[in-house]
Amino acid sequence: MEKMRVALLVVFSAAVLWPDRALALKCYSCTPQPCNNQCMDPMNCSEEDRYCMTVVELLEIGPSSVKQISKMCMPNCSEIIQHPVFTSCCQRDFCNLNGDAAARFCNSRMLLGILATSVSALLWTGL
């Protein structure tokens, strides 16, 4: 019973002495990457950060576009859905795993790839 009291006292003291360590938000973070699966570096946010943010930018290069995904901790966050920048915000640990903005574009790229492969296969077989 005495060991339990000592353990609780240590945990309580740590929470009082270092509250920012116990309550700091944790987010995935990365510099601009082409897809979500390359954007998964865990990060301890600062005490003032309250949001995990995902930013997707579409860069027009000639007739095609290139997507770049960034993730970060932010003290404030506004969701933007206005071409060429899309952002999503959340407030739980590692909640930006598949940020809405990032998932929307990675999934659409995958769907287009599957569709193009299927059409190509149909044309090749003569159906």
Automatic annotation (TrEMBL):
<feature type="signal peptide">
    <location>
        <begin position="1"/>
        <end position="24"/>
    </location>
</feature>
<keyword id="KW-0732">Signal</keyword>
<keyword id="KW-1003">Cell membrane</keyword>
<dbReference type="Pfam" id="PF00087">
    <property type="entry name" value="Toxin_TOLIP"/>
</dbReference>
<keyword id="KW-0325">Glycoprotein</keyword>
<dbReference type="InterPro" id="IPR035076">
    <property type="entry name" value="Toxin/TOLIP"/>
</dbReference>
<protein>
    <submittedName>
        <fullName>Lymphocyte antigen 6E-like</fullName>
    </submittedName>
</protein>
<keyword id="KW-0964">Secreted</keyword>
<keyword id="KW-1015">Disulfide bond</keyword>
<feature type="domain" description="UPAR/Ly6">
    <location>
        <begin position="25"/>
        <end position="108"/>
    </location>
</feature>
<dbReference type="GO" id="GO:0005886">
    <property type="term" value="C:plasma membrane"/>
</dbReference>
<dbReference type="InterPro" id="IPR051110">
    <property type="entry name" value="Ly-6/neurotoxin-like_GPI-ap"/>
</dbReference>
<dbReference type="InterPro" id="IPR045860">
    <property type="entry name" value="Snake_toxin-like_sf"/>
</dbReference>
<dbReference type="GO" id="GO:0005576">
    <property type="term" value="C:extracellular region"/>
</dbReference>
<dbReference type="InterPro" id="IPR016054">
    <property type="entry name" value="LY6_UPA_recep-like"/>
</dbReference>
<keyword id="KW-0472">Membrane</keyword>
